[in-house]
Amino acid sequence: MKKPINVSNQGATLDTSRRNFLKLSGIGIAVAGLTLVGCDDDDFEYNDNKIFDLGVGDVGVLNYAYALEQLEADFYTKVVNNFYAGISSVEKEVLTDLYHHEVIHRDFFKAAITGATNNVLPTLEFQYPNVNFNDRSSVLATAKALEDTGVAAYNGAGRYITNPTYLVLAGKIVSVEARHASAIRDLINPLTAAFSGDDVVDPVTGLDVAKEPKDVVMAAGGFIKTPFTWKERGIN
Question: What domain of life (predicted)?
Fold first, then answer.
């Protein structure tokens, strides 16, 4: 059964008094007052091993995005709860803003999918075996990898979205994720062209890199402890 969902950012805890390009009011975050069309309750399923499958069609894409936003929110939560030694005030402000944005993204997807079905992707568990959260280089390198991968993931999954409302949502969120990626890259290599390096922006087409879901999950798999599948996209 399809049901309409109304989601807003009421109650979000972002400090909008900070006047920088990353603040919530400055980027027009996608979730404010957005109405989504409900998904079919039977678009979700568990496989024989009781492992959650993301589903088919738009439902699968929404759950896929929710999984990635859970990962980013979890990572930045750990960062801001224990900032690395010697962090500058600028770095602390940027990372705190990114934390707030990713939590809003995560909570938006949870509310949207939960409003449409009882079978929502569960809260995932993550691990960071090679990340030293007290080391600047380790934290920023991981943030860079996550943000670059997130942008490529949205770009790659966009062609599987059939509902125009969802496509608009994905386009708005990926633009925010791209700003995150640029901000992290500038922290690592300030005042250089690294913020839009040739490794993420094709110098010929001028377009961001796009990656298939299977490649994204493979790249991020080392962080994800909770197994899930997306059989429609070859993720088993």
Answer: Bacteria
| 101-133: b (≥16 Cβ within 10 Å) or e | bbbbbbbbbbbbbebbbebbbeebebeeeebee
Give the pLDDT of residue 19: 36
> What is the DSSP secondary-structure string of 158-195?
GGG---HHHHHHHHHHHHHHHHHHHHHHHHHSTTSGGG
Span 185-194, average pLDDT: 92
Q: Is 81 exposed, middle or buried (0-12, 13-18, 19+ CB in 10 A)?
A: exposed
Query: What does the pLDDT average to over 122-140?
Result: 97
Higher pLDDT, 227 or 115: 227
Pairwise pLDDT comparison (215 vs 193), residue with the higher score: 215
Q: Are 161 and 172 within 8 A, CB to CB? A: no
Burial 212-234 (b: 16+ CB within 10 A, else e): bbeebbebbeebbeeebbbebbe
Q: Could you tell me the pTM of the whole model?
A: 0.82
